[in-house]
Amino acid sequence: MGIQLKLALRNIFRNRRRTAITLAAMAFGASSIILFGGFVNFIFISVRESTIRSQVGHIQLYRKGFLDKGSVAPNDYMIANFDEIRALAKGIEHVKDVIPRLGFSGLVSTGETTTSFVGSGGNPEGEEGLSSFTRIVEGKALSSSDPRGVTLGLGMARGLGVKEGDSLTLLATTKDGGINALAVKVRGIWESGEKAYDDRFLKAPIREVQRLLDNEGEVQSIVLLLDSTENTGFVRDRLAALIRDRGFDLEIKTWEDLALRYHQVRDLFSNIFNVMALIVSFIVVLGIANTMTMSIFERTREIGTVMALGTRRSGVISMFLLEGIVLGVLGGILGAVVGIVIAKAVSFVGIPMPPPPGSTQGFIAKILIVPAVLAKAFRLSLIAAILSSLYPAWRASRLNITEALRHV
Fold first, then answer.
1. How confident is the model over 334-346, as pLDDT tens digits?
2. Structural domain boundaries, residue 196
């Protein structure tokens, strides 16, 4: 095998210019896959983390049936034993914080302007961990020391024409069906980057929301924030076992179940990536097939001599397949090196990106070095090299010995 490998390398580099062009094409293909794959993975992680740390958290707990019927009768699916559940969840490894949530909606008024809103009541200190992707543009975040202070999305604040310190009145339906009002002040204005969210949403301390809705001590959902998204599966399984053992009437939803936008983005970019990989692979196949075919034409007499000396047709096929495999390995390695170097250089500078559809904030993109993408690029180079060598190898093995020896 060692001798065959040496011969394959020698045959490949007989025509160095053509081999260099072929390797350059393969490196271009592999590095393109690595760069685009790294960019796509950066988008995936950015969308995932922004969704987790601005809205849904890593894991959410609900009363069974809430997700199916809670929108019609939310007060029938409240969780009353939050403190007990919080103590249970905090004992699980990797759980960073356990945050109560109480959703509500109604009307918000400045006295002159009134509009509808969707709101969320939460623990002000805990909500900080779920606001790392939310930018405070004016004022401050929620605080337990300011129970009547609320924060608004930038679009809502502009629509109402309010600023930090202005007074508002919240009107909402209580648990018993009555109408209740709560006087609050604007403590801060934030921007999440999602226009629809910023235009209608406000946040308030959960104690004041419970008082407004007249359901003291009850929460609608419980949000778990972990130290790392990769630990979501472990915590979910441990939490499910504890809930089952305690007989709690709860259901668990992870960020993957709740982050619809993330899955839409992932499906879109995954399809684009697969199409691009297919096109690049086709280009590489054509390049290697051309190199191998030209090599056969130039080495016709050599092939005839080898076959005249007793080498079987299968041996000729193996010889050219090995040359294709060597080309694939060299091209894959070269492409990986080029891709990594370019990815690091581009990531150091950053890629300014415009706001995505439905968002108001641009961002600086990077290209991640993803081992799975590196392996895929190398694998595609190798497979493309093998496939493109099959027909030239078969064609070489079918040469007529006499005609091959006469070839000039």
1. 989 999 999 999 9
2. 65-248
